[in-house]
Design a protein that fits this description.
Elements: E1 12-13, H1 14-24, E2 31-35, E3 48-49, E4 59-60, E5 64-67, E6 77-86, E7 100-104, E8 116-119, E9 124-126, E10 129-133, E11 142-143, E12 154-156, H2 164-172, E13 177-181, E14 185-191, E15 195-196, E16 207-208, H3 210-222, E17 225-232, H4 236-247, E18 252-256, H5 267-274, E19 276-285, E20 289-295, E21 298-303, H6 307-325, E22 335-340, E23 343-346, E24 351-359, E25 366-369, H7 378-382, E26 386-390, E27 395-398, E28 402-407
Parallel strand pairs: 1-19, 6-7, 14-17, 14-18, 15-16, 18-21, 19-24, 22-25
Antiparallel strand pairs: 2-13, 3-12, 4-11, 5-7, 5-8, 6-10, 9-10, 19-20, 20-21, 22-28, 23-27, 24-25, 24-26, 26-28
Helix pairs in contact: 1-6, 3-6, 4-5
Amino acid sequence: MGDPSGGQARMISFEEAEERILAYVVPVTGTEVVGLEQAPGRILAEAVVARINVPNHANSAMDGYAVASADLVGTGQVRLRVVFDLAAGGFYSSGPGRGEAVRIMTGAPIPPGADTVVIQEVCRREGEWVEVPCGIPRGEHVRDAGEDMRVGMEVLDAGKRLRPGDIGVLAAQGIDQVTVFRRIRVGLFSTGNEVVEVAGTLRPGQVYDSNRAGLKAALGVMGCAVIDFGIVGDDLAAIESVLQRAAHEVDVIISTGGVSVGDYDLVRTALANKGEIGFWQVAMKPGKPQAYGRLGGAVFFGLPGNPVSGLTVFHLLIRPALFRLMGGRSGSRKRIWATFTGQWTKKHSRKEFLRAILDLTGEGPKVKLTGPQGSGLMTSLARANAFMVLPEGPVTVSSGDRVEVWMMDNE
């Protein structure tokens, strides 16, 4: 068991915390087969290999006329006889021959004898004849069979989180079921005598449980199966009881509050008594007080009670670890450099993550803060789409400075 006041108290860097968490998390191995409607957001357990060509035949990329390029040699115009009108889903096996053209729609298969499509905008139709320009290169506006996906090629790799575009790829291959890793089970609870359920009535000194609501939403978006253990008061025995019960039911336990050094910050003590503490202080702001460890086979994350601090730690450290546990890739962060507008001075030595608004619409990325950055200001996080990252040590940034930015929507 870890000692909450002894050797585990060393504050570690953000980078060390990130490395230790990812190294300690072991991906699940259980899988299940789901239909395409249930697949979005799930993690592929097996690579998907193309079993048909897409497109499965050479077809037209435009509305126009399918012709033989040999008829388009030279300059000027050539007059061709239209022998057939071919729509998508149709087929024409008889031509065109030399001096002939087939009227063709987008997606229709290229008929034998044709190797080029001339778009209708440059042609002039007169009855059964069409006048087309010469000099158009062979293969113009023709999609070759297998141009998108070829039989035998890997189209989706194992560990990929399935997005709508991936579902389209599966459907294009005629695949209606896919093997994914099982959902991870995440137990969630809040601590504190002052915390009240959202549907409850506030008394003086109490606050609604916004932490658990926000985390439950974030976990749901990720595709986790959330087991809600509710609110636990500031009672060591009660916290230990919930931890022990959760450890038998879930893969991951997440709590909020009770990880600092106050008289009623009991989660860290309960973890030390019943499990193992990996670390509990990280040199980051917000989010310095946090706890990471194990209870039996379950991974434990203890988040700060301040709403912004808790969700910031979740986004930056826990979310990548959960993706890894789910069988996915924790992935590299979407980091860019942007021009800062504003003024900010950091006097402390910790790495700082400021809630920010990143603008990619103008000439070069620009970033500004959402406003005041207090760790209890939930609106600062709600307005943000990125974190502006300041390195360890005192620093001042002003308008025009280039700053590092981490986007919030990374997988």
